[in-house]
Amino acid sequence: MALLSAEQVEQARNVDLLTYLQTHEPYSIRKSGANEYCLVEHDSLKISNGKFNWFSRGFGGYSALDFLIKVRGLDFPEAVNHLAGGDVAYSPPKPPPKVLKEKPPKAFALPVANINNDKAIAYLRGRGVDNDIIRQCIKGGLLYEAAKSHNCVFVGYKGKKAKFACERGISDDYKKDVYGSDKRFNFTLPPINPNSTKLMVMESPIDCLSHASIHKLDGNKWDGYRLSLGGVSSLALISFLEQYPEIKGVQLGLDNDKAGQKATNRIIKELLSDNRFSHLKISIVPPPIGKDYCDTLGAILQLNKEKSTQNRHAAL
User: Tell me, which fold does domain 6-83 have in CATH?
Assistant: First the structure.
C-alpha cells in the first residue's frame, strides 16, 4: 500500500459516519429514535449527530474513520485508504441472508356447522344409511353438515375433545381430512352395548354407517365398535387398541380390492408382531357384495325391495 498523504487522512476524517453507513452498509443500521440509529447486529451501538457510542462495551467515536477502526477492525492506513477512495482491498460486511419466518402451523378447527343437517341427511339416506343411525351420530357430535360446502363432516375424538374431522362431498366424490386432523383419532361409531369387546375396522366413515345399517336390518345380531381408518393406514387402529385394552376381537372389513387386501395382510402382520395385542382374535370379514360395505348395503336394500314387490304381486 502506498504511503498516505495528509490530504487523504484529512479527507477520511471528514467522512460522516451516518452518511458512510447509509451509502456502504444500509442494511446494517435501523432507526431507533427520532434522530438516532443503531446497528442491526448490535443494538447497543447507537449513532447520533455524527457520533457513535457502543454502550455495552464502553467506547465510542466521532467519525466513519473511528468506526472502521474500532468496530470493523481495520488498521489506520486501511481505513483511511478505504474512505479516501484508495485501492485497499476492504469490503464492508455483506448483508445477512434473509431468514424467511415460518408461519406457525394452522391449528385444527372443525368446519363451521350449517344451521341444519338436511342435505347431509338426504345424501346419507340416499346411500341407504339407516335414519336412526344418522340421527344418533348427529346427536353424539360424530356427524354434521358444513355451512359453506354442505359436505358431510365426520368427527373423531380423543376423550371428549375433537381431534379429527374429514369431509365427504354430497354431490361429488370430494374426500379430504380437515387441516390439522390427527389421524390417530379417526371416526368411531360406538356400540349399543358400552361393554362390548369387539371392533370392526373399515376404510371410511360411510362404510361404518353402512355396516351398522346392515346389522340393524338383521336385528343387530352383531354389536361392537366400528372404526374408520381414513384409508388403509393402521395408525387409527393401533391408537384405538391402546386406548381400549379391553378389546378382544378385531374384524378387518377393508375394501374388497387389491389395496384393501394388501392392507389387510399388512395390518395382521403388524398386530401379530406386537406383544401388546397377542390376546386379540383377528378375523377377516370383507364386504360380501361389491367393493365396500356401502355397496353391500345398497345390494341388500335392492334385494329387499325386489322381494317386497314380488310379495305384493303374489298377494294380488
Answer: DNA Primase; Chain A (3.90.580)
Check for a shared fold between 6-83 and 175-315: no
What is d(CA 78, CA 82) in angstroms, rounded to the nearest whole number? 6
Q: Yes or no: say if 162 and 153 are a contact pair by the CB < 8 Å rule.
A: no
d(CA 129, CA 84): 86
Tens of pLDDT, residues 262-307: 999 999 999 999 999 999 999 999 999 999 999 999 999 999 888 8
Q: How far apart, in whole angstroms, are the C-alpha atoms of residue 232 and residue 258?
A: 11
Identity of residue 136: Q
Q: Which residue has 356401502 as its cell numbers?
A: 294
34-78: per-residue pLDDT in tens? 888 888 888 888 888 888 888 888 888 888 888 888 888 888 888
Mean pLDDT of the chain: 90
Given this structure, which CATH class describes domain 175-315?
alpha beta
pTM of the model: 0.68
For the stretch 76-82, contacts whose Cβ atoms lie closer than 8 Å and that sit 24 or more positions apart, written own/partner, are: 77/1, 77/4, 78/1, 79/12, 80/4, 80/8, 80/9, 80/12, 81/1, 81/4, 81/8, 82/12
The pLDDT score that the predictor gives to residue 33 is 83
